[in-house]
């Protein structure tokens, strides 16, 4: 499961857009947003850059605009970030949890393999 942890305004808006995508397209949107992150984060107008990017994925301008006006969604994402910070001690991205074990930063393949092998052994 992916939890949003936006560090700034552009990241919050991108998280909202991914959450507005149809459920079966959520991860495709996330993958696209991460792959093109340098382009939209550094754009003069990050909202316009995001709008162009998600148009390729089938989100209309009206859907995009309505998504970014969704204060309930915005509040849910911000509240989730606060919970992660306060209750789970998340203070950086990426952060992974495998069976309650926290991995901050970018764990190596070997560390993931070891953690996942432990999960498989308990099954």
Provide a descriptive summary of the structure in words.
With 123 residues, the protein is mainly alpha-helical. It is built from 7 helices and 2 strands; from the N terminus they run ααααααββα. The chain has helices at residues 9-20, 26-35, 37-41, 46-56, 61-68, 71-87, 109-122, and strands at 95-98, 101-104. The chain has a two-stranded antiparallel sheet. A hairpin with a 2-residue loop joins strand 1 and strand 2 (101-104). Helix 1 (9-20) crosses helix 5 and helix 1 crosses helix 6 (71-87). The longest helix is centred in the middle third of the chain and has 17 residues, at 71-87. The two termini are 19 Å apart. The model has no long low-confidence stretch (mean pLDDT 91).
In short:
The chain is mainly alpha-helical and 123 residues long. It has helices spanning 9-20, 26-35, 37-41, 46-56, 61-68, 71-87, 109-122, and strands at residues 95-98, 101-104.
Strand-residue fraction?
Answer: 5-15%
Major sheet, described briefly? 2 strands, antiparallel
Instruction: Write down how many β-strands occur, each being a DSSP E stretch of 2 or more residues.
Output: 2
Tally of contiguous helical segments: 7
Q: Low-confidence stretches at least 5 residues in length (pLDDT < 50)?
A: none
| Rg value | 16 Å
Q: Provide mean pLDDT, rounded.
A: 91
- Structural class of the secondary elements? mainly alpha
The main sheet orders its strands as 1-2
**Residues in helix, %:** 55-70%
N-C termini distance: 19 Å
